[in-house]
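Hi everyone, sorry if this is the wrong subforum. Our group has a chain we'd like a structural model of before ordering constructs, and none of us has done structure prediction before. Sequence below.
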Amino acid sequence: MRHTTSDPRSRALEFRRQRLRRRASRTFLLPRWTCPTEVIIAALSEPRDRVVSEVADLIFHVSVLLTDIDIDWNEIGQELGRRAK
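Answer:
Right subforum, don't worry. Here is the predicted structure as tokens:
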């Protein structure tokens, strides 16, 4: 739980935490964005279980990204609902 404070040391520490979190997220996510390509390749040439595995990887990494940028899956669902109309 984060506490809002005007203490300069606390603000500096929070800034460092956020910066580290962003770096860690980029380090974690960037190499994994081959997932969409892997899903397409699997769908065209691999058995069903491999496609399921690749889609699960993609959904996992998207979930991590959404969490990192504070977007809830409900917002995604609402957008899909708007598109379905």
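For your construct planning: The first helix runs from residue 8 to 29. The mean pLDDT is 81.
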